[in-house]
Amino acid sequence: MINQSYRLIAPKQIRVDFIDEQIDNNSVIVRPTYLSICAADQRYYTGSRDKEVLKRKLPMALIHEAVGKVIYDPTGELKKGTNVVMIPNTPIEKDKYIKENYLRSSKFRASGFDGFMQSFVKIKKDRIIPFKADPEVAVLLELLSVAMNALEHFDKYSHLKKQTLGVWGCGNVGFVMALVLKKTFPNAKLIVFGTNEQKLSYFSFADETYTIDNIPEDLTIDHAFECVGGKGSEKAIDQIIDLINPEGSIALLGVSENNVQINTRMVLEKGLTLLGNSRSGYEDFAKSVEFIENNEDVINYLRTIISEKIIVKQTSDIYEAFENDLTNDFKTIMKWEL
Fold first, then answer.
1. In the CATH scheme, what is the code of domain 145-276?
2. Taking a C-beta distance cutoff of 8 angstroms, is the pair 45, 322 a contact?
3. Taking Cα atoms as reference points, which of 208, 262, 207, 205 lies closest to residue 233?
């Protein structure tokens, strides 16, 4: 079966490669329908990753956030046309104590091997989950699963006083993390901190929102979630450490290419817990599917952060999507018709 993989070969250069896929009884064939562009994809597309990293990982098909329709299931369990979300994390072993997304041996699509920017995807059956929601919104399930992974860590390692929760970051990760927290802890006060008042206005479900340079002097929080990433991570973490109450937890979700300084003196004095969070696994996706199917308002909220939908019928449409995404406030999704 001949597949077409749309691979990034150099910054802002995409090549179509033809691949002879061998069909087997352990995999399902899925036709991608909606793809969502992530900041990680943009770092490859724009060439902002380290040159040695680009040299090692390219050529590679981008995109790790995608849903599609089943074309062929050799077992016959999934009917043709079934909507499924595809899980980018691909473990090759199991560990009794460590989740699949933290195992160093696990592979991740669009980070070392081809992502979902293909005509069809050959994928193991335990890497897909059927869903009933609108696929145009369900394409955000991967983003939601990252928040679910962070929530699991938070439940496991944070103390029980959760009266005030703070989320730093008014982008995609901050929005989804804040939404999950509000639905999970409806009685807690949820405060979102950001740099852009227009983007903060989207967080209508939050109890309070503040720009980071206009915070009340007497404000404190019990626990915090850093969803900033990049150059802003350091300032956000520093502000969190100042405002958080003793023995609080700080969930770190923002990805930065460069090392950031952390005021470890105050971390020690306050007895704080830093929780690292990265990616997600099957269980997180399963929770995310259940979350959107049991909460109709979540679908409506998620729809508000789809800034633009681009129908992709030719390679030039891919370039348009990536270029437009650089200036969009929130998510750019591609309706995949290649």
1. 3.40.50.720
2. yes
3. 262
pLDDT < 50 stretches in the chain: none
DSSP annotation of 213 reads T
Burial code (b: 16+ CB inside 10 Å, e: under 16) for 292-328 equals beeeeebbebbeebbebebebeeeebbebbbeebeee
Q: Which fold does the domain 2-140+305-336 belong to in CATH?
A: Quinone Oxidoreductase; Chain A, domain 1 (3.90.180)
* pLDDT single digits (tens) 277-312: 999 999 999 999 999 999 989 999 999 999 999 999
Adjacent-strand bridge partners of 129: 85
* Residue 325 CB-half CA count within 13 A: 26
Q: Percentage of the chain surpassing pLDDT 70? A: 100
**Separation CA 240–CA 169 (nearest Å):** 12
Token reading at 240: 């969190």
Residue with tokens 């704080």: 272
Q: Which residue, 281, 288, 151, 289, is CA-closest to 227?
A: 151
Q: Closest by alpha carbon to 24, among 130, 124, 127, 92?
A: 124
User: Exposure of 11 by Cβ count < 10 A (0-12 exposed, 13-18 middle, 19+ buried)?
Assistant: middle
- Transcribe 163-206 into DSSP letters: SEEEEE--SHHHHHHHHHHHHH-TTSEEEEEES-HHHHTT-TTS
Rounded Cα distance between 87 and 116, Å, is 10
